[in-house]
């Protein structure tokens, strides 16, 4: 039977680079991974709390972490920076303080930078969030999927596939529904494919959203 592999891990070193960039001794490796997870969660929580609009939209495409001996550098790729930062510098400083509080690392500085993503709706994370929001507002899932695909088509990608699994529309039996537009060549390693899986809590239970976006071929 077909085995499904994460398309990002499958293409590491060819079209895909790591989201975290550091080296560690084997005994410290797991602590490093947990630290990364903590940083990411802390940033997401902060953005969730301090959003200006009540839309529930974070708009974070991805968070890159680079670690050196004395410095942790965090780059947040965000689709809609104005959601996070009214007074730009204050927002970043506050966020930095928050994350620093989580870590009691005395000898390491934390540096947070924010870069804006050119085409936010070409990013699977932002799209998944958009769909999750629609589903929470009781929009029918087909409508939400089609709307998401329309938004992506404006960013001239070559193909997109969206999949939703779980108790869709509150039905008793969970099922998987998917829809594809254009080509999504998952077997071709040359093809640069962006992927994300996102869980959203609805009143019926948890739904899983997966998105594959075929950006271009090398």
From TrEMBL:
GO BP, one annotated term: translation
UniProt-listed PROSITE patterns: RIBOSOMAL_S3
Pfam families according to UniProt: Ribosomal_S3_C
Subcellular location: Plastid, Chloroplast
Chief site of localization: plastid
CDD domains registered for this protein in UniProt: KH-II_30S_S3
Keywords carried by this UniProt record: Chloroplast, Plastid, Ribonucleoprotein, Ribosomal protein
Presence of the UniProt keyword Nucleotide-binding in the record: no
Domain Small ribosomal subunit protein uS3 C-terminal: 131-213
Domain of life where this protein originates: Eukaryota
Gene Ontology CC: chloroplast; cytosolic small ribosomal subunit
Record InterPro entries: KH_dom-like_a/b (IPR015946), KH_sf_prok-type (IPR009019), Ribosomal_S3_C_sf (IPR036419), Ribosomal_uS3 (IPR057258), Ribosomal_uS3_bac-typ (IPR005704), Ribosomal_uS3_C (IPR001351), Ribosomal_uS3_CS (IPR018280)
Single GO MF descriptor: structural constituent of ribosome
HAMAP family for the chain: Ribosomal_uS3_B (MF_01309_B)
Quaternary structure and interacting proteins, as annotated: Part of the 30S ribosomal subunit.
Family named by the database record: Belongs to the universal ribosomal protein uS3 family.
Protein name: Small ribosomal subunit protein uS3c
Species of the source: Clintonia udensis
């Amino acid at each position: 039977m077909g085995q499904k592999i994460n398309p990002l891990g499958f293409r590491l070193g060819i079209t895909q680079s790591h989201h975290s960039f550091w080296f560690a001794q084997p005994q410290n490796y797991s602590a490093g991974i947990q630290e990364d997870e903590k940083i990411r969660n802390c940033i997401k929580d902060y953005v969730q709390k301090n959003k200006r609009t009540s839309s529930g939209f974070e708009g974070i495409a991805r968070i890159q972490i680079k670690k050196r001996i004395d410095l942790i550098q965090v780059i947040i790729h965000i689709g809609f920076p104005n959601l996070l930062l009214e007074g730009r510098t204050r927002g970043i400083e506050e966020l930095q303080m928050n994350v620093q509080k989580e870590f009691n690392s005395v000898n390491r500085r934390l540096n947070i930078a924010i870069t804006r993503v050119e085409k936010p709706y070409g990013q699977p994370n932002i799209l998944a969030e958009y769909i999750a929001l629609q589903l929470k507002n009781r929009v029918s899932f087909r409508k939400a999927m089609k709307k998401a695909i329309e938004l992506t088509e404006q960013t001239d990608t070559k193909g997109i596939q969206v999949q939703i699994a779980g108790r869709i529309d509150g039905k008793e039996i969970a099922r998987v529904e998917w829809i594809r537009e254009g080509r999504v060549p998952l077997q071709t390693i040359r093809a640069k494919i962006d992927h994300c899986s996102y869980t959203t809590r609805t009143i019926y239970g948890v739904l899983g959203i997966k998105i594959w976006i075929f950006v271009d071929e090398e």
